Amino acid sequence: MTRLLAIDIAKMEDVAAQAIEIARRIGADHAVASANASAGVRVTARNGATDTALRDAGQGLTITVYRGTRGGTVGTAALDPAALTEAAEEAFAIAALVGEDPDALPPSLADMAVDTPLPPIDAPSGHDVASLRTLALEGDARLRAGAQPGVTLETVTAGVSSSEGVFALATSAGFCRGQRYSNHGLWLVALARGADGAINDSADSFDRRFDRLIPVPMLADRAVARATGQLGGRAVPSQKAPVLFEARVATALIGSLVNALSGNPQWRRATFLPDAMGRTVAAPHLDLDEDPFEPFGPASGGFDREGIAGQRRTIMRAGTVEGLFLGTRSARRLGMPSTGNADGPWNLTLSSRAERGSFADLCRRMGRGLIVRRLSGGAVDPVTGNWTHAVAGTWVEDGVPVHAVTDVTVGGNLRDMLTGIVAVGDDVERRGAYSTGSILIDAMQIGGAA
User: 7 falls in which pLDDT band (50, 70, 90)?
Assistant: First the structure.
């Protein structure tokens, strides 16, 4: 199978190892180097024609050099010996200008993923530009063909992409490993025009395996339904009522929880969940599990940027915190071992021990309230947990969606929101590292018409 990227793992490992050798030669006490290269193709279509067709490639190296406990970091896009030498020397010079930080020193080889199994995350698509263009044009045609009486549809964009990459990490402690990866995507954005205005909405699919992407016809139907479903929006009175977060929006709640449980906020106590270990922070039917080794998972990997392996573990069991997201520096400051999360979380899944159900089941359970389908402007205060967003969505009466809403905000506090989750749907969606079904919260403040 023809690859988009010809560079192999051994080449990247050699580049990273060369940078470490240079750093030690100029007097570094420790050094860490990461090298990467990638190549991809992206095609978009609109109004029956190709809008853009882009093939790009890139490479780079980042090196951190230590003088004692002082570290300097420099990046370079050139990977020849002269460029590596220049980068190492600049990093060495920068290290002399910064403060001592013993907690930031790289981990020892004994703590690193020297022989941890690497999950498969590389699956070249085998598609050339012409076949990707055909898919983009099909998406565009499907969107425009979805017009309904009184509604016209236009394509904002119909796009498809395929990319491959390889990275390697080397340290002066003796670690040197690399891995290949791939990423593929389809996305469709439809603009619906009705008598009272125009609304756009989207549907997308991303996976490391091209053949696992959601088919174009299904994505087009979703994008059209989401756009047309928001036409004719009406105001609702300000009130407190149940709120149902559609699955693709609900992942934002997981993101807020992850931020609260991450190392620096925990160490600085700049989080709405300080001293979280062992605390019950969410409804008792909720579990949150992490898996770095899921085959072809979007956030899978054998080690983080520090060379530390993650682990299959439960972050939250029955609403109680059992794990944090720590890199080496924050772990040392908290007196704990690194969890291999220097790059953030691995694949996370929120699940419920309570009775689940379809999206329609959750609407019926809600009775009367608001479906949140999209978040617009707003803010989350990571320290207090106050959460406020302008939203697009649908009003529900007697368990049935009745009309789109407009000029609505939703607010609450993340502590109350997490403990107020009464159900998680079986309509699971994955957005990056986060996977969850729709989330029903018992009550939130809805700001609408006076």
Answer: confident
Q: What is the pLDDT of residues 415-435, one digit of tens each?
A: 999 999 999 999 999 999 999
Tell me how far apart the terminal alpha carbons of the chain are, to the nearest angstrom.
62
pTM over 0.85: yes
Residues 6+ apart with CB under 8 A from 432: 251, 298, 299
Residue 62 CA to residue 36 CA, distance in Å, equals: 9
Distance CA 266, CA 304 (A): 20
| Tokens at 114, concatenated | 């020297």
pLDDT average, residue stretch 342-358: 95
- Number of C-beta neighbours around residue 52 at 10 A: 12
Q: Which of 385, 381, 389, 375 is nearest to 420 (CA)?
A: 385
223-227, 290-294, 373-377: least confidently modelled range? 373-377
